[in-house]
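Q: Can I see a sequence and its folded structure?
A: Here is a first one.
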Amino acid sequence: MKLAACVVLYNPNVSVLDNIQTYLPLVEKLYVLDNSALQIDFLDKIKKVKKVKYVSLNGNKGIAKALKVASELAYKDGFNYLLSMDQDSKYPTEDFCYIENYIKNNDTSDVAQFCINYTGNAIKQYVDNVDKSKTLLINAHITSGTITNLTKYFQTEGYDEKLFIDWVDYDLCAKFKAKGEGFKIVLFPNICLQHTLGKTDYFKFLFFKIPFRSYPPVRHYYMFRNYVYLRKNQNKECRDFFKSPIMNFWGKFCRSITEKQHIKVWKIINLGIKDAKRGKMGSFEELHPDYFKKL
């Protein structure tokens, strides 16, 4: 197993240095892809980290572009596996041995990805005597904390840069599942990544405060635009994948009601759906540079 890792930066804070140390000992090389729009004050410290190869993308080119570049660099450098990490994620260093042993001792010739659970979604991750070697076969998972078989990756069309952000990971999973009889995605449900999706906020209903994941309006734009685009443009196998309950369009729309800026959110969702139907993809800022100035 020849393993590298990549992390995508976007205006990070200094905590990313500590986060990197949770997975740096596990890999031979770390590709740092910089999507930042602002100057990083501690950039020299990142560049000086042993094993790091720093790559500036000269502005925000999106998560899909960054992951695509990292995959190409790792494969060119002779690595057959790539661990992808978000800048705010911490990897459970001491539990990596369970994944490594699984790959060494099992036939993984049809496995495209090895995933772990994440904070807020994991069950019994800290219970004594929990079986961390347990595995499940799943349909899709988030990018952060996932180890991708690069040989399998390059048998697909890879990450779709037009998506920019959101659905990038699920789009790749759909492509894996659509190959022949389908490549497998293996989850270690009792190994937990420290990672949070969105910001936790609360929706008041009568006398109750209901927690939910809150996102800026522009994230809703990408969520809905990319979902509609993928349903419209993917091949039949991938379109069928996006009909599954986990991809429930209306569920996401109903959750948008809980956002404090829900009127702005609905307007930008409508714009995203229209852009998808028109085939207008890529960066929101480039497509609609004056959008928020008009509000």
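Q: Show me another, different protein.
A: A second, unrelated one:
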Amino acid sequence: MTGRDERPETRDENGPGVAIVAETVAPSSLVSRLSSLPSVRLSSVGAELLDDPTTDPALVRRMLADIARCNRWLGGTLTVRIGLARLLDASDRGHSLTLFDVGTGAADLPRAAARWSAHRGVSLRAVALERIPAAAAVAREHGVPVVLACAGAMPLRAKSVDIVLVSQVAHHLDRDSTVRLFAACTQLARRGVIVADLHRRWFAAPAFRAAGALLGLHAMTIADGVTSVRRGYTVTELRALCVAAGAPNVSVTASLGARIVASWRTDV
């Protein structure tokens, strides 16, 4: 995409070119639609509070604020920048691209991605997907259009966005659901896919507990985080999932803060 002002194309009855966002579809309509979408299967390793869409909205807000703080200080934002650096071309300068963030939470990462890209002369326009209503509300409050839906049934048409971001979502799912998710992302993206997740290392859980105390994280954020790092991946494991999903020429590297990032281009 080079400079054309295109919106993500949806599979909705609104027709192609109309993003299903808070401004165009009432939240109540989106909630009723969510119940009819196919679900994905969660990881069998532990359980996290944010796996549950019925978690108290006030607690969801607090935990999402904690996660945004962790992204800023513990490497989550950095992994997204690494992925973007692999996908943006010099010729993108002065043009506009679209980013679809799957499982956006508080939408801190797509907003950080837009700021980082703007410094490089690229206008990155974000749309997000979120299955938890309380989290979707937070993302909307931060100015990011959000689709309330399940990643098991992407509400966009094939090749309707430039870049798809999947950050700290895959480890919540079982293997088969993760492979299907990555394959669906490949179908959506005109340019490429970024998967940013957690690197499972022996020191990650105790290090996160210590960092959580220093950052003043809520006890439930720390508990969920410890489960998350247990669910994380080695470089070999994440590469195998990407390959199983048919990701072409995938690059997988470890990053700071017990993070890991995979990316692949879909325009080759």
